Amino acid sequence: MNLNQLKKELKRQGPGAQKNKRRSLRLILLLLLVCCLLVVLAFAYRSYDKTTPERLFSKGLSLESQGRPDRALASYERLFENYPDAVQAPESLFRAGRISRFDLRQDQKALFLFLKLEHDYPENDYVTAAQLEAAELTKYRLRNYAQAIVVYQRLFDNGSEDGDQILYEIADCYFRLNNFSQARIELDALLERYPESSLRAEVLYRRASALLLDGKDEEARSGFQALIESFPQSPYALEAKFNLAEFLETEERLKDALKAYRKLTNYPRQELLQQKIARLEKRIAKKKKAL
Fold first, then answer.
1. From the centroid of its chain, how far is CA 245?
2. What angle do CA 240, 183, 217 make, to 5 degrees?
3. Does some domain include residue 80?
């Protein structure tokens, strides 16, 4: 480029070209500023989002303590629905189930939440408690004994510390389904697995009762007698003695039955006992007159 051409080029660019360069520089700086701002906002949002589960959980606890279970439930639901991987999610599910069960009396929803906890977080520490809640709810509120057996069985299979109590609940469910033979099988398993169980006297009584209800009178009689011998001071021994007296009455051994009833001075159902005694005394008196 010769001198004349250079002069022409400089004239062509003039002050406007410098102005355009400054404008472009400002635009680039503005874009950089916007990008930096977006990065800062994204970082702030991620930090805020990470703490949201903790804040939702704390809010739920606070609302529970204030006696506002419906609001607490909403906070817990938002937590486990939107942040299922949060460490607070399993406990929020458990607390939501408890609120639904005890505060709001929404049995079906409570059962769903407890079972969801068991399904979604099978290794979590709250699973055992959730299974127990689900089993009790199914048995005592919904009265679905067959389903309760399934839940109790899972609880037992998971190695519950109260295995004897769980087996007893299973047996009781079979009782309520009038499946006395299976109830007896469960009670036998309890006696075998937990020889030192505090439920042993009651289990022996329920086992003998299952035999009686299943039409096995002699085996039932032996069961009641074994209970009396093993746990003479137990209240279940009194019930066993009452049942043995009824055996005597059924067999028309009226005097023996009357004697057995009269010995039950500490029997808790005194009104029933006195009715039995009065009726037997009348029957015995009638027989004497007939002679």
1. 40
2. 45
3. yes
Question: What's the pTM?
Answer: 0.81
**Of 128, 64, 51, 53, nearest to 95 (Cα)?**
64
Q: Which pLDDT belongs to residue 26? A: 75
229: pLDDT strictly greater than 90: yes
Residue 19 maps to a domain: no
Q: Tell me which residue range forms the domain holding 133.
A: 55-142
- Name the domain count of the chain: 1
> Which residue reads 């048995």 in tokens?
139
Report residue 215 as tokens: 């039409």
φ/ψ of residue 142, rounded to 5: -90, -15
- pLDDT above 90 covers a percentage of the chain that reads 79
Distance between CA 137 and CA 152 in Å, rounded?
11
Q: At residue 70, does pLDDT exceed 90?
A: yes
What's residue 23's pLDDT?
74
Angle among Cα 83, 89, 95 to the nearest 5 degrees reads 135
Please provide the size of the chain in residues: 291
Percentages of the chain per state (helix, strand, coil), in multiples of 5: 80, 0, 20
Residue 34 reports pLDDT greater than 90: no
Sequence-distant (≥ 6) Cβ neighbours of residue 166 within 8 angstroms: 152, 155, 156, 160
* % of the chain beyond a pLDDT of 70: 86
Please report whether residue 113 resides in a domain. Answer: yes
What are the φ/ψ torsions at residue 157 (nearest 5 degrees)?
A: -65, -25
Q: Note whether residue 183 is domain-resident.
A: no
CATH code at position 64: 1.25.40.10
Give the C-alpha separation, 183 to 177, whole Å. Answer: 9
